[in-house]
Amino acid sequence: AKYNFSKPVFKLISKIKTTLGSQFKNKSYKSLFTIGLLNGFLPCGMVYVALFGAIAMQNEFYGILYMILFGLGTVPVMSSVIYINSFLTIPVRNKIQKIIPFVAVIIGILFIFRGLGLGIPYISPSDMSLFVQSSPNCH
């Protein structure tokens, strides 16, 4: 019989979210530490994408390798964000924070156009080569 892993995982995530909510009400250094620690256990969207990629691998070994490489691939970017942040002045940080919502909207619009398949070069390809073949060519 197969074991359903989703129930305990969702139960754990729910417990973490509940604990996070209670910690946000406290204004102590211990609460800030606990929030940071617990927040690390809640995956972001890119981690979900990587998990789906790992699940799609041929076997468990390749799935584990996929996740290890994904984690290692985030190290340079995350490290550079920390170091670059120390060089940015407050006005530059404020400008970046004001630009982020516009960039997010533009990326969202590009994703919508891409999904529509309008035939706009580099933005919305019309051919179906982006979709999975019904009978893949496995060698």
What does this entry show, briefly?
The protein has 139 residues and is mostly helical. The protein has helices spanning 6-25, 29-39, 45-55, 60-87, 90-116. The two termini are 32 Å apart.
Give structural attributes.
139 residues, mainly alpha
Structure description:
With 139 residues, this protein is mainly alpha-helical. It has a domain at 88-139. 70% of the residues lie in helices and 0% in strands. It has five helices and no strands. It has helices at 6-25, 29-39, 45-55, 60-87, 90-116. Helix 1 (6-25) runs antiparallel to helix 2 (29-39) and helix 3 (45-55) runs antiparallel to helix 4 (60-87). The longest helix is centred in the middle third of the chain and has 28 residues, at 60-87. The two termini are 32 Å apart.
Please report the number of helical segments. Answer: 5
Extended strand count: 0
Order of helices and strands: HHHHH
Structural class: mainly alpha
Helix content: 55-70%
Distance between the termini: 32 Å
Q: What portion of residues belong to β-strands?
A: under 5%
What is the residue-mean pLDDT, rounded to a whole number? 82
Largest sheet: none
Give start-end ranges of low-pLDDT stretches: none
Name the overall outline: extended
| Rg from Cα | 21 Å
